[in-house]
Amino acid sequence: MILFRGSGVAIITPFHEDGSIDFNSLERLLNFHLENKTDAIIIAGTTGEASTMTDEEQVEVVKFAVEKINGKIPVIAGAGSNDTRHGIELSKMCEDVGVDGLLQVTPYYNKTSQRGLYKHFEAISNEVSIPIILYDVPGRTGMTIAPETVAELAKIPNIVGLKDATGDLGYTCKVKSLVPEDFAIYSGNDDVVVPLLSLGGAGVISVWANICPMEVHNMCEYFFKGDIKKSYEIQIKYKELIDALFMEPNPIPIKSAMNIMGMNAGKLRLPLYEASNETQETLNRVLKNLELI
Fold first, then answer.
1. Taking residues 72-82, what's their average pLDDT?
2. Segment 162-175, tens digit of pLDDT
3. Dihedral class, residue 167 (left if φ above 0, else alpha if ψ from -120 to 50, else beta)
4. Burial level of 188, CB count in 10 A (0-12/13-18/19+)?
5. Are the beta carbons of 87 and 120 closer than 8 angstroms?
6. What amino acid positions are annotated as catalytic residues?
């Protein structure tokens, strides 16, 4: 099954000045995405700063999103861990609060072998009944899921897709050649969404969509309807903004951009720290050029 097609936003978690979760601002953001045709909410992932949350906070944020979205679009929860037992516990807690699917990142820091990767994801999939999207982001985890391993994992009934944040379209092409047609591949990189769609991708899990949800939705929708020119024109038009959103580690620039735009993203939790003056100046200039401020 395909959990969603199109633009899934990797939504930020707004924090108050004291670092606590700003649920009022989160509700406004969720409504903003419903109003602007976002196709799925990916909550408590990398962009949502889940790694700085307690399990209780993470599940509370997930539950809040499920309740506010109320079945209108899929809600997919980040529930990955480098400890398989912890990943199972977190995944079961997210399933219990009603999410439509789980995003499972490759184990980080301690890493593992390809066989260990298979066993890790297999163990989690055996303990939940909802769909799982694998998350391959070697720039953060220090390892990748080999295409052959993805193909083996795709045989597990509730492992239904891959968020490909390798930035390597050769890798994407190899994975696509090995997995079933209904195994969804999502771009994890905002700068190569249209190229990945051309390889049979199902959409994007997007940082950029936090501030341009309609544009990211339309870019995907035009492609699916066969208007490739309109699709790639959006990709190209926003290239400078996308680059600016990754001048520093995500989600530092996206939160800065949202605050510049008056979207109340709030603070970051350490070790993430506010954007540099250079990043903020670049964001201001690009946002003005695109008439977003």
1. 97
2. 999 999 999 999 99
3. left
4. buried
5. yes
6. 135, 163
